[in-house]
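Two proteins follow. First one:
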Amino acid sequence: MTTRFNEEEDCVPPLFRPFTRESLAAIEGRIAEETARRTAQLESDTYIAPHHVDTLKPDPMLEAGLPLPRALQREFPPELIATPIEDLDKYYENKMVSP
């Protein structure tokens, strides 16, 4: 018998995912969408007040070079050790960064 909890758990994507060519393509797609949205916004007559603009900032706990927070260390799958992974910080979801 499948419980509702197990069904919801199956729908949740894993927190740690390997960084693949598809990951890069997804980032490039989000950047293109953001650029198109901003271009359309500039060309339109609609004014967006600055306080309505997203002000997402990088999470200092997930800064490059720092160890993972303890809560995340317990969840990190051993098979991904020494494997590039997708960024956990939502701030970088539509940004290209290099090491």
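Second one, unrelated to the first:
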Amino acid sequence: MPTIWRACCSTPTATAGAAPRSAPAHRPLPGATAGPRRRPITWTSWGGCSMGESASSNFRLGRWLTLGLVSPWRQHRAPPADHRVRILMYHSISRRVDDHAHPYYRTVTTPERFREHMELLRDDGHRVMSLGDAMRWMNTPVLDDGAEQPSPVVVTFDDGFADFFTHAFPVLDALRIPATVFLATGCLNGRFVNGQPCLRRAEVGELAARGVSFGSHTVSHPRLVHLGQGDIDKELLRSRQEIEQITGAPVTLFSYPYRFPEEDGEFTARLAARLKRNGYEGGVTTSIGSASAHDDPLFLKRLPVNDDDDAELFRAKLEGDYDWLHGVQLASKRWRQWTHGRAVA
């Protein structure tokens, strides 16, 4: 196995003869669903979380500030003067226990919660579109007719876990919701760094044929800020080439693995140049917030989602009420940079 892959995956011994995972019956995935309909934020559960006190105190404070202060304040403010897109960031759709991580960093959403989220998008009338379509929409002129422009929603998944095929796609397919999956290609047919099984190449091909979009998440899911230029190029180029070989479609979208070092302007400028050189036109990060035309299209913000997002908090995120956390996140990064003398991945 090439060195660049070893940190990412190990191939299960049973893969070669394993029976294929079953997939749902075919349904087309169109480019968008349409028609916004607002629902008011209620006040029933600012701190209602079934988590340990020490692990969840900051999370509950963030929830209280979002639902108790930001949401009411925003409802009395004029809409933003530019187009905003809510890009949702999912990882694993499974029942795997994720209690060891702080709520902010949990990456597991149960199939039941995920279905609740997707049905809420449908029932509340949100426009859901592909990431490529959303990026084009962001750059269209804003109509100055006094009416608020509803923000489209994009559904993305990082890493390429096998549970996307078994748990996420059946829901997306049934509700006709488009999605983009960012693959760490070194883990295909194997396991991720945390031991979770990843998608098989045949499954990626089938999903692509049924309307799912794919982007690169590197080969081995490294901390790019620690790599030299040559190794970064290998991660970017090889992952893109493999996905294109499997899907038969061009790959122009990228998702940055781990914490995005937005405070390190020198590194992000170098990375942007490498991305463009290797054929990428757009990308997403783990920076919290709504994406807008003012952002670098290679480094768009997203809204992290996991099983702790009940309907109330999920709606608040869709309305932009969670975007305030980006200021806190960026301040924390800059503090760490100042105390450590450089960006810390």
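SUMMARY FIELD: The first strand starts at residue 84 and ends at 90. The chain has ten helices and ten strands.
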